[in-house]
Amino acid sequence: MTYVVSESCIKCKFTDCVDVCPVDCFREGPNFLVIDPDECIDCTLCVAECPVEAIYAEDDLPETQRHFTALNAELAKLWAPIVEKKDPPADAEEWMNVKDKLHLLER
After folding, report:
1. For residue 50, which phi and psi values (nearest 5 degrees)?
2. What are phi and psi of 49, to 5 degrees?
3. Does residue 52 contact residue 9 with C-beta atoms inside 8 Å?
4. How far apart are CA 87 and CA 1, in angstroms?
5. pLDDT, tens digit, for every residue of 24-74?
6. What's the confidence (pLDDT) of residue 1?
7. Least enclosed by CB within 10 Å: which of 5, 21, 36, 97?
8. Domain 3-82's class?
9. What is the pTM of this model?
C-alpha cells in the first residue's frame, strides 16, 4: 500500500508534508504535489502534516478520489522531487475548501 495525494491539494500545494518525509517521495507539479508509489514506505508521517487533509492511505481514499492513485503514479514519473518545504501559493487559503478542482490541475 502507498499513500496518495488527492484533489484537495490542487491549487493549495502546501508543502508541510515534504519536510517530514524520510524518503523524499513527493514530486512537485505547477499547482499540485504527488507521492511516488515506488518510493513511499507507508510511514504515515505526511498525513498529519497536510493542512487540507489531502493525503490518504490508498485503501482509505474516498470512492470519488480513487482515480488519484493512478494519477499520482503517472505524474510521479514526470515531475521532479521536492525535498524542502516551500511557501504555498499566495491564494492557497482561498482554495482550501473548494471542491471539484481536478479540471484546474496543471501538468
Report:
1. -80, 115
2. -85, -15
3. yes
4. 29
5. 999 999 999 999 999 999 999 999 999 999 999 999 999 999 999 999 999
6. 79
7. 97
8. alpha beta
9. 0.97
Domain limits of the chain?
3-82
φ, ψ for residue 36, nearest 5 deg: -75, 115
86: left (phi over 0), alpha (psi -120 to 50) or beta: beta
What angle is formed at CA 61 by the lines to CA 55 and CA 65, rounded to 5 degrees? Answer: 95
Q: How many CB atoms lie within 10 A of CB 48?
A: 11
Check residue 76 and report its DSSP letter.
H
In the structure grid, which three cell numbers stand for residue 28, read together? 512537485
- Residue 18 scores a pLDDT above 90: yes
What's the sign of the alpha-carbon dihedral 16, 21, 27, 33? negative
Q: What length does the chain have?
A: 107
CB distance 12 to 89 below 8 Å: yes
Cα–Cα nearest to 81, from 35, 47, 22: 35
| pLDDT value, residue 96 | 96
